[in-house]
Amino acid sequence: MAVESAVWMVQGILLATAFGLLAMSLHLRDLVRSIVAFAAGTAFVAGAFFVLASPFAGVLELTVGAGLIAVLFLVAITLTGGQEASE
Question: CA-to-CA distance for 15 and 62, rounded, in angstroms?
Answer without folding.
Answer: 14
